[in-house]
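Supplementary Methods S3. Input chains for the assembly prediction are listed below.
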Amino acid sequence: RKEVEQDPGPFNVPEGATVAFNCTYSNSASQSFFWYRQDCRKEPKLLMSVYSSGNEDGRFTAQLNRASQYISLLIRDSKLSDSATYLCVVNGEYGNKLVFGAGTILRVKS
Amino acid sequence: GAVVSQHPSWVICKSGTSVKIECRSLDFQATTMFWYRQFPKQSLMLMATSNEGSKATYEQGVEKDKFLINHASLTLSTLTVTSAHPEDSSFYICSAIRDSQNQPQHFGDGTRLSIL
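Predicted structure tokens for the full assembly:
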């Protein structure tokens, strides 16, 4: 079983749609959780950290369920510029090593 | 603006050449930097953790003599791919963290390495 699992997609949605991505992780001792976005042939860029209480940044809402070892990302009012691969990333128990999911592809179309 | 700079962005060279990639943290001191490799349509795979002033810690299956890492200062880590072969062609990305637990990593813009 992979340490971090994501639905690879692609998710094809129209502009303005709401879309949700899910992610599960296997290490119950994981301490930190992030969503990164990666554009084609580019480096990952931090989208947002994920906190236990859930957090929101504009159109983006992230939630964490430690009991189920589940992380989600909700994007409201999708824009064309949101098209990218979204990486669920989990920090391990020791040190600051990150484990990356394989990513979920989002395509927003006009 | 970018907080981690990586150079070069693209490298195309012949088989057997050694290639050095630099990773610099621009506005903070990074005691720890990480080197990743990403093959097409795959996730980032951690190759090694680079600690300033000490030997790098390599992940299982990564040859330390093949991928030489030097972290000589708090703002610079280098990865040298020695005697590169076509199977080493990949996207190499470094990241750095500020000296604090559980902080997100900031990534360099990656180096696309193509070995002919």
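Chain B touches chain A through 24 residues (CB under 8 Å). The mean pLDDT of chain B is 90.
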